[in-house]
Design goal:
Structural class: alpha/beta
GO molecular function: N-acylneuraminate cytidylyltransferase activity
CATH architecture of the largest domain: Alpha-Beta Complex
Strand order of the largest sheet: 5-4-1-6-10-7-11
Order of helices and strands: EEEHEHEHEHEEEHEHEH
Number of helices: 7
Radius of gyration: 19 Å
CATH superfamily of the largest domain: Spore Coat Polysaccharide Biosynthesis Protein SpsA, Chain A
Helix content: 25-40%
CATH topology of the largest domain: Spore Coat Polysaccharide Biosynthesis Protein SpsA, Chain A
Pfam family, one: CTP_transf_3
Number of domains: 2
Organism: Candidatus Kaiserbacteria bacterium CG10_big_fil_rev_8_21_14_0_10_59_10
Oligomer: single chain
Protein name: Acylneuraminate cytidylyltransferase family protein
Length: 230
């Protein structure tokens, strides 16, 4: 069973212009998932989906294949799953190539290890999974029982008001947020239009792997973390 990595990296970003080629640790953001995917033993091909000539050039410099994404799939409102489906469709059109599994990696979550990718593929094969997702545990501050919602009258209250007070001092159920990797079977992507199917298995990773870059401040925070780690 073969697996490819798809890295969606469009050119437009209103909140952080040029985000996908911004430098982190001396490398463009898009280079981080490319290098990790190329070092993963279970990944056969690494493909960047983009509408940007600059991103395409950088991706090729770091050894990725590039598939140009049509403009209608590169807007702020374009679902990522449509870019993934476009890649799979183009591969089949070009040479009849069909991937059994696709790993979705994002330049905006650059902290990804090759071993994590291989572990996800191995788990999918072992379980016959529709999909695998890396997750990290939600901390106490951001636990759903502590999250507040704003009412129409401008007041605020806990989203789970009753539970917030009844479980004070007691063990709470654990919740998890998506981290840095999604893996799905061909059928899950193409037939269901999802990266997470009915039979999804998690791999729990450290919270640092959930770091997401939306703004320049986020990039600077991860840069500081990498300097500290070094």
């Amino acid at each position: 069973m073969n697996c490819i990595a798809v890295i969606p990296a469009r050119g437009g970003s209103k909140r952080f212009p040029g985000k996908n080629v911004a430098l982190l640790g001396g490398k463009p953001l898009v280079a981080w998932p490319i290098e990790s995917a190329k070092r993963a033993k279970e990944v056969e091909r690494v493909i960047v989906s983009t509408d940007s000539e600059e991103i395409a050039r950088v991706a090729k410099e770091y050894g990725a294949e590039v598939i140009i994404r049509p403009a209608e799939l590169a807007t702020d409102a374009s679902p990522v799953i449509e870019a993934v489906k476009h890649v799979l469709t183009e591969l089949e059109k070009e040479n009849g190539y069909r991937a059994d599994y696709v790993v979705l990696l994002q330049p905006t979550t650059p902290l990804i290890e090759p071993e994590q990718i291989d572990a996800a593929v191995a788990l999918a094969k072992e379980k016959g999974a529709d999909s695998v997702v890396n997750v990290s545990e939600v901390d106490t501050v951001n636990h759903p029982y502590n999250v507040r919602e704003m009412a129409a009258d401008g007041t605020v209250r806990f989203w789970q008001n009753e539970l917030h007070y009844t479980v004070t001092g007691k063990d709470r159920p654990k919740f998890y947020r998506a981290a840095n990797l999604w893996l799905a079977s061909y059928e899950t992507v193409m037939r269901e239009g999802k990266m997470e199917g009915n039979k999804t298995y998690p791999i729990i990773v450290a919270a640092k792997y959930s770091s997401d870059i939306d703004y320049k401040d986020d990039l600077e925070r991860i840069e500081a973390f990498l300097r500290l780690k070094k």
